[in-house]
Structure formats: C-alpha cells, structure tokens
Amino acid sequence: MLNSDKIRTEEGISGRVLTICENNLDIKTLLHLLQLKDYDAYIHSLRVATLMDEIFTADDAVIKGALLHDIGKLELPLGLTNSPMRLSAKLKDVVKAHTLLGAEILKYYPDVIQECALYHHDKTNDTDYIKQLRACDIYDAVTHPRPYREKCFTSEEAIGELKKQQVSEDIISAFKMYLPKDRVAL
User: Fold this and answer.
1) What CATH code is carried by the domain that includes residue 73?
2) Domain coverage including residue 69
3) In degrees rounded to 5, what are phi and psi of residue 5?
4) pLDDT tens digit string along 61-102?
C-alpha cells in the first residue's frame, strides 16, 4: 500500500505519520481502502496528519484521528467528492454526511479518533485538537488541486481563508511560524 519513500518525497509526509500508518494494521487497512476508492482523499489525509504532527506536535491518538478524519468518504458514491461539476445543495448534504459516516465506521475506536471524523468541519467545537485539525484540513484543501476549483491558494491566501473560516489567531500564528517566511506575510 504505502510506498513510503515516494510519498515522503513527493508529498512531504512526515516519517512519524508513515510509521504510525505502517505500525497499525487497522489504520493501514482503512487507509488502503480509502486509497483505492479516492486517492486524493487518501493523500489529503496523510498531508493533514503531517500538518498536525509538524505544526502542533499532536500525540499519536490525534495523528491517527487526523489520518482517518475523512474515512466516511468510503461510504459516499464513487466520484462524488472529486466531481468537476458544481454540486447541488442535495449532493453537498450527501458529502457533508461523511463526518457522521466516519464516526460510525470508527465507533469502536478511542473517542479522540472518532471525534476527529465527526467534528473536523465543526466551527463550534472548542477542543484544541479539533480546532487544529479543522485548520489543517482547510489549509491542505485550499493549497492543493481540486477538480472543481481552477487554482490552488498560495500560503498567504490560505492564511486569509483560515481567518475567513474563523480559525483562532493562536492557530493562525502557529501556521505562520511553520510556513516558509518568504511565502507568508507576517
């Protein structure tokens, strides 16, 4: 499943995230299923977990939750999340349900992992790791290609999007410290 050297080089995935994947058969299996169904969601999950690791030095349970935050997409109709077409309100609701579907898939996992799937889009959740995960999810989503969007955001534009999405200043400051200084106006 994981070609660790290729993924580490091409996608910048941290060694710690890859080690957690390789050492947890159930997580490795779920990620493999996601990789087969939706490669973009799989790579996105690895990148989000890496951001959680490198910016917030999250513990292993939170890294596992970050890896599986979009696992509910396994239950969505094939091609829906990567459709180049603008989705109707009804189809957007179907996609939003991936959080509930993910929590159901992860119901026998520790709460922190299940909560990452359930709440990663929730603006009102005040748990630190959920707020951090939400920011990492947004940042990665806007800075990488999507079939339904013409261009990726620059790091500076992504910081602006985090502000627009009401991400707290302390989390935005952590992103600014992490990102290369020449890419974000401080």
Assistant:
1) 1.10.3210.10
2) 4-149
3) -65, -45
4) 999 999 999 999 999 888 777 777 787 888 888 888 899 999
